[in-house]
Write a structure and sequence with these properties.
CATH architecture of one domain: 2-Layer Sandwich
Largest sheet: 7 strands, antiparallel
Strand content: 35-45%
Low-confidence stretches: 1-34, 147-164
CATH class of one domain: Alpha Beta
Number of strands: 7
Length: 213
C-alpha cells in the first residue's frame, strides 16, 4: 500500500494556500491515512463561576475569534428574539490551522443557564458533521464544601441553603467528521486535543471577564 506521510501532505497543501477553498485538490482518498468517520470527545470540569457567567461567555459566539483555539474569525449573522426560548442564531466561524483555512455557518441553539449547542450546516467544506454541546450544572455550596471539609469538623453550611452556588460543572460534548481525508490526515495528530483546549480557553476567558477566582 502506498504510504504518504502527513509531512508530505502538509507540503502539498501549502502550495494551495492562495486558494480560498480546497475543492480543487485531487482525490487522494485511496492513499491518504486518517479517519473521516464520526469522532466524539467529552470533557468536563468544575469552574469557580456561576451558571449565568459561564453561559454568557459560551453564548457570546461573536467573541470566539478572540480566544477559541483555531478560530480566526466569528460573527453572528442572524438571531431570534431573545425573549423567546430557546434563542437560535446563525453564526459564521472561520477555522484556521496549518495550511487549512475554511469558513462555515453553524446554527446555535441557546437555552439560558442550561446549554449552548452549535451544529454546522451541511454545506461546510471542512466538516461532514460538527456538533458542539455545552451544558452547565450548578454545584451547591454545601456540596462543594463537603468535599474538602474535615469529617471531624461540624458543618457550618445552612441545611436548607440549596440555592447557594460556589461553582459550576461544565460538560462539553464534541462530535465531528471531516469532509475530506486530506483534512483528517493533517489534523489527526492534534485535533483530538481540541475539546480540552476549548474548555481551557473558556476558563481563561472567564478569568479575563470576571476575574480569576
Amino acid at each position: 500500500m502506498l504510504h504518504v506521510s502527513r509531512f508530505r501532505v502538509a507540503q502539498a497543501l501549502a502550495s494551495f494556500t492562495g486558494r480560498r477553498h480546497l475543492f480543487s485538490l485531487p482525490d487522494l482518498s485511496n492513499i491518504l491515512p486518517g479517519p473521516t468517520d464520526l469522532q466524539t470527545y467529552h470533557e468536563q470540569k468544575t469552574l469557580p463561576y456561576t451558571r449565568q457567567q459561564l453561559y454568557q461567555v459560551v453564548s457570546d459566539v461573536g467573541s470566539y475569534q478572540h480566544f477559541i483555539p483555531f478560530c480566526s474569525a466569528s460573527r453572528v449573522l442572524r438571531t431570534t428574539d431573545e425573549t423567546q426560548i430557546p434563542i437560535v442564531l446563525d453564526a459564521e466561524l472561520t477555522v484556521q490551522f496549518l495550511a487549512l483555512k475554511e469558513s462555515y455557518v453553524s446554527k446555535v441553539t441557546c437555552i439560558p443557564l442550561e446549554s449552548v449547542q452549535a451544529v454546522a450546516s451541511s454545506s461546510t467544506p471542512l466538516f461532514k458533521e460538527l456538533t458542539t454541546t455545552w451544558r452547565f450544572q450548578s454545584i451547591p455550596e454545601r456540596n462543594l464544601l463537603s468535599s474538602v471539609r474535615s469529617p471531624t469538623l461540624p458543618s457550618t453550611t445552612p441545611p436548607n441553603d440549596s440555592t447557594a452556588t460556589a461553582a459550576t460543572l461544565v460538560r462539553l460534548d464534541l462530535a465531528f467528521a471531516f469532509a475530506s481525508p486530506i483534512h483528517a490526515a493533517i489534523s489527526s495528530s492534534f485535533f483530538g486535543q481540541v475539546s480540552k483546549l476549548m474548555v481551557d480557553a473558556f476558563e481563561e476567558r472567564c478569568a479575563e471577564v470576571y476575574g480569576r477566582r
